[in-house]
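quick one before i forget lol
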Amino acid sequence: MPHGHAHPLLESFLSDQSRWGTVVPFLTNRVKIPDLSTRSGLRKTHSQIDRIYTELDAFYQLGKARNSPQLLAGVVSILVKMCTDSILKEKLFEKGFLDMIVDLLEHDLTRYMALKILLAFAHDGSRKQGDVLTKIAGHSRTLARLIHNRPNEHNVVELAVVVMAHAVRFFTSTLTPAASHRLQEIGLHDLLQSMFAVLRRRNPSKSLLTHALMLLITPAQYLPAFCKDDTSMIEFFVALLRAKDISTRVAALEGILNISEVHSEPDTYEVDLQHLTRIMKDAESSAAATTGSDSLDLYRLSNRYIEVMSRAARDRDWSALGRHIADIVQRSPSVVEGSWSQLEEDVDAPALASHRSRATFSVWSDALPECARTLRQSGRSSDLDAADILDMKYMMLRGRIEEAITMARTASSRSPDHVYARYVISLCGDTAEGLRAAEEGLKCPGVTPFLRKQMLWRAVEFGVYRGFEKILSTSETEDNQAQEGIVSLRQALENVNVFLAEAPSDAHLRLTMLGWKLLLVMTLRGPELSDSLIELTDIRQEIEAAITTKRTFGYTIHKTRIHNAWNQILQLNDASLREWGAIIHSCNQVEARTHCSGASVEHRGFALVTDQEPLPETYLGMQQCSWCGALSVSLKKCKGCGSARYCDIMCQRGHWTEHKQACRGGPVE
């Protein structure tokens, strides 16, 4: 027993719950804890923390052995008070303080207090908050059991859901796909099932529904492979597309798209050229030859590509070949490949004999860099642009994406109307740069129909991503940003409609763009659509027609991310409304969302309350770390300037790039 024989007062509150108020004063005197409401007291605590913690832990172990929640709560209350100082808090968590808090969940008297402490620590903004959230996530099974075993304790259930949602979200966001097995450690599957049960509670609050939704959407956003075979989860996301809140609908669509990508195929341009040739030989003498057809263009350009390659094998005129190929790749996505040595064997022997040696190419596309090099020697602007096209195309064929982007940036700087350079950036750049490149490319003079369709497609995808980003990062009080996101989605839908109006029925991306149209209409108009989705009848018919056309011309229909997403929505729509319609109605009534900013208004004012409230002057006596912002009485002073303060050398190093201009330099003291 701590300090020898039991103190009479200690024995009294071990056995009498009414003596709660005497626990903290007793422990404070017994352990000789300095005044934690003053700066000097906290400084003394820093120097004695090992002794203080050891003695308090001994009392804590006694409380566990004697099943005394009063003693356990008393120890935790004192340690919480120490956490006013950020560095003390870090030390306490390293010593296992979180396990003490979790132990309080087992007692009726301290359960609510423990949950409020956990919530406070989940949102304190300290530099080690990530570590704290990860440790809390490790106790998710305990929190889930609490929800299951105490369904009638509404505040307890709500607090447990709130804490768990934030902790699990952070934990999941830090995992790589290779580490996804760690989700089993926290029992994520069972947690999700418990959240479905929470959604079905009678008269749930906005906070409860918001955090349950937040937890359910988390794995689809960060590790969608975890949900790939969970039909009930996908069905739930489909139902969420009917929510009134736009951010909820966007989060649901993002989840569906992420899951759809797991089993998806790339949207590559694959066609049976022999099948296409048979069809096109008939089409060339029909109306298709004059009314416009992407398949006919592909057929003619493929033949032209073969022809110019064969000619180059005879005459070795790399400049002429380069100009032809640069023109072809701006009009067609396909590059015909073949063996260069076989091509040389097929040309006339006298023509080949006039050259001293055979070309050292393996396949036809290996000729592109040589063509580009030769064109650059002319110095003409048009040849330089063509050379850039050839080099960029070659790099993309070989998977050298970063090099292609770098060259595209250089080319577009040199030649502002270089459409192909804009196209490459739109394919490979990030959201902002890619969208800007697509929009600028569409305005360039001389843009070919092929490049125009490609950049409309990229403008749609980047517009969707930008809209998602703005909407999902918006709090309830930031309506302007949400409206900007909605405008981006509407602009994306407008670009879809422009594409569909301009493109022929056999356009390669027509099926993809029809898929985007269905997804965007569902997202923008979800709650106003009928249960049967009769408003989407025309889109569905167009999708069926596009599939038939692609098959007719011999194109491979890939199960892309977009294809999988719209297909899932159409297949699961009826079942999703039967299963989840009432839940969506409840969410709409309280305006629940799928994400929470952490503001107190979204947590119904659950504030950290112990038997000793923190005093404002405690904080006024502290200093703030110049890098992470942590408050403490024991920060280390920068030797160089004497004014900056840091938690440790790591904070000083993090701040150095910014601080060095105003500092003479030197380690912290």
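fyi Residues 1-112 form one domain.
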